[in-house]
Write a structure and sequence with these properties.
Layout (H helix, E strand, L loop, with lengths): L7 E5 L3 H13 L6 E4 L2 H9 L13 E5 L8 H10 L8 E5 L4 H10 L3 E4 L4 H17 L7
Parallel strand pairs: 1-2, 1-3, 3-4, 4-5
């Protein structure tokens, strides 16, 4: 993958321990892309959509968004909905990583355009394994050309 098309990983995760575990296992899988962490939705949305909220700030960016649903200031579902309804961010893959395993919530995320939904297992080893698998997924993922 050439440098101009490098994918930046946006991680929206308020649990510092989970954020470190996610990054560690992505790195362990050989993925060296830049990871920009956010601990709340407000800061993540400001980064994605810019101060004016138009989303033009992300025009031309190649992003992959890791999204927790349970955030201190808003729900990840709200963020997902905004990302997938904005012309500048709607093609960015969104991976939901959350403890919520309610089937209606999972279906709602897919209906809104989530690409992958991963339930964080409560036990550390299960969670670490899920993240390792995600890292392997990133290592083989190709970003489609923008139209």
């Amino acid at each position: 993958m050439n440098e101009a098309r490098a994918v930046t990983i946006i991680m929206v995760e308020d649990d510092e321990g989970h954020a470190r575990l996610i990054e560690k296992n992505i790195r362990r899988a050989g993925v060296n892309n830049e990871i920009i962490p956010f601990t709340n939705g407000t800061e993540a949305l400001t980064y994605l959509f810019g101060a004016d909220g138009s989303g033009e700030a992300s025009a031309g960016r190649h992003l992959l968004i890791l999204l927790d649903l349970n955030l201190p200031d808003m729900t990840g579902v709200d963020i997902l909905e905004k990302v997938k309804s904005n012309v500048h961010t709607k093609r960015s893959p969104v991976v939901v990583l959350t403890t919520t395993d309610d089937t209606r919530e999972i279906q709602r995320c897919y209906d809104l355009g989530a690409n992958v939904y991963i339930t964080k297992p409560v036990n550390y080893e299960g969670f670490a394994n899920a993240i390792r698998q995600l890292g392997l997924f990133f290592s083989v993922m190709q970003v489609p050309e923008t139209a």
